[in-house]
Write a structure and sequence with these properties.
By secondary structure, the protein is α/β, with parallel strands linked by helices. It has helices at about 15-30, 50-60, 65-70, 85-90, 95-100, 130-135, 150-165, 185-195, 210-215; strands at about 1-10, 35, 40, 75, 110-115, 140-145, 170-175, 200. The protein starts with a strand and ends with a helix.
Length: about 220
């Protein structure tokens, strides 16, 4: 059994795009995959098919319904804020231990867990997404953009994760809508500072074979 955690340098970077791409690749290789998006902020029931959970379910070949969304995303909040703030708006809170337990592996050959926001986003008053990653112990894919400033954000995120003992298996640079330089140049620069892990470019709207590159 294998597992990975998909996190990022911030919100709206491309985590769900990469998660869905990975799920489709695993299925094409006849690998049994389960994917979870346990926490979601900014959830609008009327747009369920287009939300992160809906996109992941579609990549898994599953029907998007209230039941299927409940199965992979039990912590859903209406406000498009950090989970701790979004939960507070509804008089709720995330039980961190329950979240970790929900994210455990099962009978599948491969489990993909997608986080929420960036690696340092607060989940509770004391816990962040990084604490969640460390508690699970799964290797992480860090999704970054190619926008101006991404190099600093990426190196800072990876450093913070490593300081806390999280295993970073790769950085995936998902090409942003607006990029100051070709995505390949961003990848080359990040590689100069992270030469011990793969740094992979995903062209906007394109795909790469993550399984082959990462040797899952």
């Amino acid at each position: 059994m294998s597992a990975c955690f998909v996190t990022s340098t911030g919100t709206e970077i491309g985590k769900t795009y990469v998660t869905a791409m990975l799920c489709r690749e695993l299925r094409r290789k006849d690998i049994t995959v389960r994917a979870l998006k346990p926490v979601l902020s900014g959830f609008e029931p009327e747009n369920a098919v287009e939300c992160d959970s809906g996109i992941i379910l579609n990549a898994l070949g599953r029907t998007v319904s209230e039941a299927s969304i409940n199965e992979i995303t039990p912590w859903r909040f209406a406000a498009p804020l950090s989970p701790d703030m979004a939960a507070a708006r509804e008089g709720r809170m995330i039980d961190f231990n329950a979240l970790v337990e929900f994210s455990q592996t099962g009978d599948e050959e491969f489990l993909v867990v997608e986080g929420v926001g960036g690696a340092m986003v607060p989940l509770t008053s004391q816990k962040t997404v990084l604490d969640w990653i460390v508690a699970l112990g799964y290797p992480a894919l860090v999704v970054a953009g190619s926008y101006l400033g991404t190099i600093s954000h990426t190196l800072t995120t990876v450093n913070a994760m490593r300081v806390q003992g999280a295993a970073v298996s790769a950085v995936v640079v998902s090409e942003s809508e607006i990029s100051p330089v070709p995505v390949s140049e961003t990848v080359d620069t990040i590689l100069r500072f992270l030469d011990d892990i793969p740094v992979i470019a995903v062209p906007r709207g394109g795909t790469v074979d993550l399984i082959q590159v990462l040797d899952f």
